[in-house]
Specification:
Layout: H1 10-22, H2 29-60, H3 64-70, H4 72-94, H5 96-105, H6 114-124, H7 128-141, H8 150-182, H9 187-203, H10 207-265, H11 271-297
């Protein structure tokens, strides 16, 4: 399967591109070709505009005025390009995070080489599921010689993208639940608050105040019920995350099995090595016999 940038999960692809561009001297081939094409197109358009301007100028004006007017296109280009360049650099200096975000979003298109996957994607993974996804991606990038068809590989990669997106969504919710539980909001504390509110309610003689304390106690009871449900909910979210990780491991095992099966069908040929060894053995025996003959004659 020939991987393409646009097939990879977008968040990981953006991180990998950011890490790749941070390395001095690295430039993606697709981006280089795009920049060269746009530069050539801009130069061609500039040459056409200036050429048409000069043709019109030579037919209308003679003498030193033609030289002065011929510099007008260059002055116009400078007036347009230089302020725009300065403004872009100033914006990048004032908002480096925004510039970095734009660079990260600009994921290239085209073929994704296996060496790029091996070099930049592992460092882009931040969770266990992302690491498993990157390992699966590396296997897919190198699976062209292992007999994995393009359609099957693309379908598998789409399923992995969906699993990783689901894992991120579950991870966000689990983090919120874990944060709430780690803040020391225990069910026992809420039970104590409810008991205190109920005691105040029972001790209150004023009907209106008693009704207010009753509403507060009811809200506290609902809060207690919500906290009681968070424990099982957290366990379910963790189970869902583990299921996704196991599914990604299954994808890896399937690809490795396919590669092993393809290699098992292609038995190594040792006939050439055997023939070479026999030839060297014969030459060695001839040398040994010649040495023995020389020693006998001496």
């Amino acid at each position: 399967m020939r991987l393409r940038w646009e097939q990879v999960e977008p968040v990981l692809a953006a991180r990998a591109v950011t890490r790749a561009r941070a390395e001095p001297g690295w430039r993606d081939a697709a981006l280089v070709r795009e920049e060269i094409a746009w530069s050539a197109f801009a130069a061609l358009m500039a040459a056409v505009v200036i050429g048409l301007f000069l043709m019109i100028l030579l037919h209308l004006v003679d003498g030193p005025q033609s030289l002065l007017l011929s510099l007008m296109p260059v002055a116009l280009i400078a007036l347009i390009a230089v302020p725009e360049t300065r403004a872009s650099r100033a914006a990048a200096a004032l908002h480096p995070q925004a510039a970095e975000t734009r660079a990260a979003v600009a994921v290239p298109r085209g073929r994704l080489a296996p060496e790029v996957v091996r070099r930049f994607f592992p460092d882009a993974a931040r969770t266990r599921a992302e690491s498993l996804y990157v390992e699966t991606l590396s296997l897919l990038a190198e699976s062209e010689a292992a007999g994995v068809s393009g359609g099957a590989g693309e379908d598998l990669l789409r399923q992995c993208n969906t699993l990783l997106a689901g894992h991120r969504r579950i991870e966000r919710h689990r983090g919120r639940v874990r944060t709430l539980l780690d803040q020391g909001v225990a069910v026992a504390d809420v039970e104590a608050e409810y008991a205190a509110l109920a005691a105040r309610r029972d001790a209150e003689t004023d009907p209106a105040a008693r009704q207010t304390w009753e509403e507060g106690a009811e809200l506290c009871a609902r809060r207690r019920d919500s906290l009681t449900a968070l424990g099982p909910m957290l366990a379910r979210l963790e189970a869902h995350e583990e299921t996704i990780c196991q599914a990604l491991k299954l994808a890896q095992a399937t690809l490795i099995r396919q590669e092993a099966a393809a290699l098992a069908l292609d038995a190594p040929s040792v006939a050439g090595l055997t023939a070479t060894v026999e030839r060297i053995t014969r030459e060695t025996r001839a040398v040994e016999e010649a040495a023995l003959e020389i020693a006998r004659l001496a």
